[in-house]
Design goal:
Helix content: 10-25%
Radius of gyration: 23 Å
Distance between the termini: 57 Å
Number of helices: 8
Largest sheet: 10 strands, mixed
C-alpha cells in the first residue's frame, strides 16, 4: 500500500482498540512503527490524532498512511485444527448463546489457555464455537485449570470490549461454591488480605502480603457458610470483590479453612480422605454481568461430577445457598 487510505470501522470492529485494529488489518506492521506513525500524526481517526489504546466506533474513519507493499500484506493464516471429538466436547459445554455472548460450564481439569506441556486447552478449541458468526469467540476472563464453572466468551470485538469494561469496573457479581476443611469463624464476613505473586507460569504461587510490599495488590472476598458436616467440613460460598490470581484459594487458606483438594495452599490438611474425592472443590457457580447489548446476563452452572458426589455424600441441598450473602452486600 503506497498511498493514503481512509478505512471505515465496521460493526464487527466496534469497540476494538486502535492498535488491535491495525493488528487485524495490517498484521505485518510492527507495533514500534505504528507508535511512530501515531506520534507523528500520520494515523488519524476522523481527522484527529489518536493513541494506540483509543476505542473505535462503527462508522469512524481511520487514516492509514502509505505502509509499503510488504507491510500491507496479510499474514499467512494459521490453520487451527480442532478434532471432531474436541469440537463435540467443547460445544457440549455451552450453557448460553446469543449474538454477542457465549457462556460455558468449564469442567475441572481443562486449562483455559496453553502453556508449557499444556497442549489441550480451551483456547485451542474456540474455532469450533463460531457457529454462525464470522470470527472465533474471545476469552474475556479466566478460571484456573482445576476450577470449574461459568466462563464467558465474547462473540464480537464490541462485546469483548463491553465485557472487559464490566469486569474492570466491577459490574459483575461472581459467586463461587467451595467445600472447605473446617468451619469459618465467624461463619460470614469479608476477607481483606493483600496478595503478591512469585515464580513463573508453571510454578506461580500467591502469598499473603502487606500494603506497601513489593508487588502487593489489595484483595477482598465476601464469604458465607451455607452448611456444615460434623464440624469437619463446610460448604462455603465466596464472592470475590477483586480479581487476583488464586484469590479465593489463598483467602480460604488464610482463615484456616483450605479448600478441599487444594494441596498447593492447604497442604495435607486439604485432603480429608474417606470418600471425598481429592480433586479441587471450587466451582464458579454463577455470574451476573452487564450484557453488551443492554440489560443483565445471569447464568448458573451445574456442579462438576466430583462436587455433586461430595454434596450427595454430605447431604447438602443446593437450594440452601439462596440469599447466602444477605447482610453483606449494601
Amino acid at each position: 500500500m503506497n498511498e493514503v487510505a481512509q478505512i471505515g470501522v465496521t460493526d464487527e470492529e466496534d469497540g476494538l482498540r486502535l492498535d488491535r485494529w491495525f493488528k487485524r488489518r495490517f498484521p505485518m506492521l510492527t507495533h514500534g512503527r505504528l507508535e511512530k506513525l501515531l506520534r507523528t500524526g500520520q494515523v488519524r481517526v476522523d481527522g484527529a490524532r489518536a493513541k494506540a489504546n483509543a476505542r473505535l466506533e462503527t462508522g469512524q474513519t481511520v487514516r492509514v498512511p502509505p505502509l509499503g507493499e510488504e507491510t500491507a500484506k496479510p499474514a499467512p493464516k494459521v490453520a487451527r485444527a480442532v478434532s471432531d471429538r474436541d469440537a463435540e466436547f467443547v460445544r457440549s459445554l455451552v450453557i448460553h448463546k446469543d449474538k454477542s455472548v457465549l457462556v460455558l460450564n468449564k469442567p475441572a481439569g481443562l486449562a483455559v489457555q496453553g502453556g508449557t506441556k499444556t497442549e489441550r486447552h480451551l483456547d485451542g478449541m474456540l474455532d469450533a464455537l463460531t457457529f454462525e458468526a464470522k470470527e472465533r469467540p474471545r476469552l474475556v476472563h479466566r478460571l484456573d485449570r482445576d476450577t470449574s464453572g461459568v466462563l464467558v466468551l465474547a462473540r464480537t470485538a464490541k462485546a469483548a470490549a463491553a465485557l472487559a469494561k464490566a469486569f474492570k469496573q466491577k459490574d459483575a457479581r461472581k459467586i463461587y461454591w467451595a467445600l472447605v476443611v473446617g468451619v469459618p469463624v465467624p461463619r460470614q464476613g469479608t476477607i481483606d488480605l493483600w496478595l503478591t505473586k512469585e515464580g513463573g507460569p508453571r510454578a506461580e504461587r500467591v502469598f499473603a502480603a502487606k500494603k506497601g510490599d513489593e508487588g502487593a495488590r489489595d484483595a477482598s472476598t465476601h464469604f458465607s457458610t451455607v452448611a456444615m458436616a460434623a464440624h469437619k467440613l463446610a460448604w462455603v460460598a465466596f464472592m470475590p470483590l477483586t480479581g487476583r490470581t488464586h484469590q479465593i484459594r489463598v483467602h480460604a487458606a488464610a482463615i484456616e479453612t483450605p479448600i478441599v483438594g487444594d494441596g498447593k495452599y492447604g497442604g495435607v490438611n486439604a485432603h480429608p480422605g474417606g470418600e471425598i474425592p481429592r480433586q479441587l472443590h471450587l466451582h464458579a457457580r454463577s455470574l451476573d454481568i452487564a450484557h453488551p447489548d443492554g440489560g443483565r446476563l445471569f447464568l448458573e452452572a451445574e456442579l462438576p461430577p466430583h462436587m455433586k458426589a461430595s454434596w450427595k455424600l454430605l447431604g447438602f441441598d443446593e437450594r440452601d445457598a439462596k440469599d447466602a450473602f444477605a447482610g453483606l452486600e449494601e
